[in-house]
From TrEMBL:
Region feature Disordered, mapped onto this chain: 1-107, 336-363
Cofactor: binding comment: Binds 1 [4Fe-4S] cluster.
Keywords: 4Fe-4S, DNA damage, DNA repair, DNA-binding, Endonuclease, Glycosidase, Hydrolase, Iron, Iron-sulfur, Lyase, Metal-binding, Nuclease
Role played: DNA repair enzyme that has both DNA N-glycosylase activity and AP-lyase activity. The DNA N-glycosylase activity releases various damaged pyrimidines from DNA by cleaving the N-glycosidic bond, leaving an AP (apurinic/apyrimidinic) site. The AP-lyase activity cleaves the phosphodiester bond 3' to the AP site by a beta-elimination, leaving a 3'-terminal unsaturated sugar and a product with a terminal 5'-phosphate.
Protein name, UniProt field: Endonuclease III
Cofactor(s) the protein requires to work: [4Fe-4S] cluster
Length: 363
């Protein structure tokens, strides 16, 4: 009974071979040790994962307030856009909504520029229906002398000075023969009185010697007179002879550049550039409209933007005072002219012969 049969021994060996991997048998103690180590490793990994998750959750809780604080940021203040007030455009009918810049630099076609320029002139014609030369004169001789005297001074100052001058020297012959010292004394309030005395006496002599005492009606003749340039010549031609011309004075130069009609700075080039935007028949009245607007509203230093009737059409809106009430205080006109100034309607110009035409209405 104590011995195993040979068959039973072979069966036990085969069973052992099937249980051992790779054809090798593993001792029972080592297998148990490996199994315990694997269980410990798995437990440690699970513990580490739980600890990591807890750590992440805690850090997320701590970081949450910072994230919330960072997300609550004040949006940057929007840049204030200045727009033309409705009050300033009340006198313009059918205009588009007011904008700060209607036509930005370089973003306007030639056709659009011509249309905008002509519309501005039409609007100004409604605002200043009686725009005219603001120098007082009764004939072409007085006009050319007064225009020469208006350089570097105001028309108001000239109008205060010329009555005494023309009372003493009513004709070119009288002024040509005048004593320079006496003329200087009369012209002293106009500034640069010595140079102006030389010019008016010189042009009077030229009129007597070269034109029979008459003011010529041609540009090429007028510019030959002492003290007379293209600006003065066009004032005389447009207002004494009815011949169109553009008067490029300081106001005109400032406004056409401010309105971006041209970028030229030379008076002759400005004259050519603006002349190309308008029909020739508009040139004289255009000059009056622009100059009147420059003297009354669109000043050099403090333009009254808030009271400007062409604000929606002006690319430079906002350079001056935009508040309507404050802008009103900057206006320098009263019923179309300066306070106390003698106004005349456009019909009060001279006729082709240089004689004053009878006024047909009140200014």
């Amino acid at each position: 009974m104590g011995e195993q049969s040979p068959d039973g021994g072979r069966k036990t060996a085969k069973a052992t071979e099937r249980a051992a991997p790779s054809g090798k048998s593993t001792p029972p103690k080592k297998a148990a040790a490996k199994k315990g180590a694997a269980k410990k490793g798995a437990a440690k990994t699970a513990a580490d994962e739980k600890a990591g998750a807890a750590s992440k959750k805690a850090s997320a809780k701590k970081a949450a307030p910072v994230k919330k604080a960072a997300s609550v940021k004040k949006a940057p203040a929007a840049k204030k856009v200045t727009v033309a007030p409705k009050k300033a455009t009340a006198r313009i009918k059918g205009t588009a909504p007011a904008k700060a810049v209607v036509h930005p630099p370089g973003d306007e076609s030639r056709t659009a520029l011509v249309r905008r320029a002509r519309r501005i002139n039409r609007e100004l014609a409604e605002v200043y229906p009686y725009a005219h030369p603001e120098l007082d004169f009764d004939n072409s001789f007085q006009l050319v002398v007064a225009t020469v005297l208006s350089a570097q001074t105001t028309d108001l100052r000239v109008n205060q000075t010329t009555p005494a001058l023309f009372a003493k020297y009513p004709t070119p012959e009288d002024l040509a023969a005048a004593n320079p010292e006496e003329v200087e004394e009369i012209l002293r309030p106009c500034g640069f009185f010595r140079a102006k005395t030389k010019s008016v006496i010189g042009l009077s002599k030229a009129l007597v010697e070269d034109f029979g005492g008459e003011v010529p009606g041609r540009l090429e003749d007028l510019v030959k007179l002492p003290g007379v340039g293209r600006k003065t010549a066009f004032v005389v031609l447009g207002n004494a002879f009815g011949r169109p011309g553009i008067t490029v004075d300081t106001h005109f130069q400032r406004l056409v550049r401010r309105w971006q009609w041209t970028g030229e700075t030379d008076p002759d080039k400005i004259e050519a550039a603006i002349g190309a935007l308008f029909p020739k028949s508009d040139w004289t009245d255009l000059s009056h409209h622009v100059i009147w607007h420059g003297r009354r509203i669109c000043h050099a230093r403090k333009p009254a933007c808030g009271a400007c009737p062409i604000a929606p059409l002006c690319p430079a809106f906002g350079e001056g005072e935009t508040d309507p009430e404050k802008a009103k205080k900057l206006l320098k006109y009263e019923k179309g002219g300066f306070p106390g100034q003698r106004l005349r309607p456009p019909q009060a110009y001279l006729d082709a012969g240089g004689r004053p035409a009878p006024p047909l209405g009140a200014g």
